[in-house]
Amino acid sequence: MPVPPNATHPVQNRRPIGEIEGLRGLALTLVALFHLFGNGRVSGGVDVFLFVSGFLLTLSLARRAVSGAPAALAQRYGRTLLRLTPAALVVLIATAIMVVTVLPKSGWEQSGREIIASALYFENWELISSQLAYGAAGPMTSPLQHFWSLSIQGQFFLVWPLLITGLVLLARRVRRDPLTAVAILTGIATAASFAYAWTLNAYAPDIAYFDSFARFWELGAGALLALAMGRLPHASALMRSVLGWAGLALIVASGFVVDGATSFPGPLALLPVAGAALVIVASGSPTRLGADRFLALRPMRFVARISYPLYLWHWPILIGYLAIRGYERVGLLGGAAVFALSVAVAWATQRFVVEPILDRRGSISVRRALIAPITAIAVIAAVTAGGVAGVQHQTARQQAAVDALAASNPECLGAAAMDPATRPCDNPSLAGKLFPAPNAISTESDNRPECWAGETSHEFNVCTVGPESGYERHVLAVGDSHNNTFVGAYERIAEQMNWRIDIAGHAFCYWTAAEQPVQSPAGAAACASWKSALEEHIAQSTEVDAYIVTHSRYSAVTVPEGEDRHEVVVEGMVEAWSGRPDPAAPIIAIIDNPRYPNDTSACVEQWGLDAISECPVVPRSVGLRIDDGQRDAAARSANAHVIDLTDFYCTETECPPVIGNAVVAGGWSHLTGTFAKTLAPYIAEQAAAILDR
């Protein structure tokens, strides 16, 4: 039965829901506190925000639909832009200033791309494209990371009114109830999104966390509740009190009982979403002991008032504090200071930027409400794009210069400076130069997609360097990312020795019979699949003359109760290596490189060649304290040998960040491509000696 435009409908009979403001205040408080002190855990507050956004927008659209009023989409978009854009652009400008004054140059290009993405509301997809996972705040963490949720909301605010308006017009045209049609569409879309999120979260949690389609069900759940409001049975004050407190308990408990960073937006995200739903369902006339009393407290209302600018400000302020102080984590006093400063700046933004514009919103024409914010967004995006292009050009020019010099294999570069046959080593042509160029330290890599599979990928990719025919030796190099840091070195070895070297790598996964949990169930399943494919490839590659293996000394294995981790690591390799088709083909295990502080690349970028004296130097015993197990595995295996390059990384007492004008590591774990290539002649010499025995 179609509903006439002037008919009374349940969605029109709702009073303003005051609990929503307090709910926003609570959610934002949880988000900020978990960002400050949660060490990467997720509070569930953002999930509440998404639910509330879906609820409020759909409730507004539904009321307009049943009243028969025009859709007025241009007016709606103009109001939304005026509400969201000013504060966001102020924060983006301030963050851009912080990036170029506080953060290392190596992060400027990525930050620039994220500023553009945040201004245009696709930051979540930029994070996915850049393979950046949600993580705890640190000095090297993106200061724009938190814009992912605002981007999803912005996409929803753009698309949802169009869909609902179109569906309402279609329903009226065929004389059907518009809200019934909307409810059916919303229910189907929400169920599909939930199933998609559940599936994607199982094998690619990093992608699922930011994926708009995986997140839609949280918005859709709010939309469904909005459509149901007014049709729900009336509950007593006591029942509403119980429901309200139960909802708050679910919201607050979510961050403590669930690891949302790896499980949201999967089924476990139902905890905060259901909590928010219960609080809204419990709304109504004031109660004596209900959750509404708590949510109406002045502090909650204050935080709710500044919740949007506070969300915008707290994250870049936190990242800036960590970068300036050089801390990995914020302490109690530092966290309190960051929170207090964030509140103060958020209040000022709300008071002097947001509210003056909102107060004048009625006098601003729809045309101006649309054009002014869009123009401001376009200007910021264009200026930032120009800056990114400039950084890219400068980096390319600097890197081309050092690449040209490095390609000539100058004496004393990188590992050559540690060669006992030539020490002490001095090459005037290297004076004042740093390899790679400072802006490229943290990003330089010789790895290739065709040689590599990501954490959750089930693909088995093999690439070949060197000749594919007429070669003297055929070598297979396998392992995790630490194997693939040597791709450039393997290429030089292949050219020098006339060898064919096939390379196969997988993130967090190497050649072992031990079970590897990786970082998620999806990663563990992908690793197991890759190792099965590796074993099949090895079984079919009967003409291989040698196997080069290496892996991170921090690679995880599943250790059965009562067993020793080192023994599990060693025996896993021994068992795997014993399955090669020709035992006469030696195993050549390259002992893993040391570990460095997380901020090594940023420090080297800042100090250049002075990094040896100004940046933290890792004691040799600390950098090598975790044994990768390869030495013991080789000792227990037939025809297995090790290449130990430790003396090229470290002196007798310490492991410096710069050796022979070359930066050793581009982070805490991976060698720079430049330094790895300088190791090529020493790997080739020792590998050839093993093969010639």
UniProtKB/TrEMBL annotation:
Cited InterPro entries: Acyl_transf_3_dom, Acyltransferase_3, SGNH
Coiled-coil stretches: none
One GO MF term attached to the UniProt entry: acyltransferase activity, transferring groups other than amino-acyl groups
Keyword Mitochondrion: no
Protein name stated in the entry: Acyltransferase
GO biological process: lipopolysaccharide biosynthetic process
Keyword vocabulary terms for this entry: Acyltransferase, Membrane, Transferase, Transmembrane, Transmembrane helix
Domain SGNH intervals: 459-684
Pfam families per record: Acyl_transf_3, SGNH
Domain Acyltransferase: 18-349
GO cellular component: membrane
Organism: Agromyces archimandritae
Spans through the membrane: 44-62, 82-103, 147-171, 178-200, 212-230, 242-258, 264-282, 302-324, 330-349, 370-391
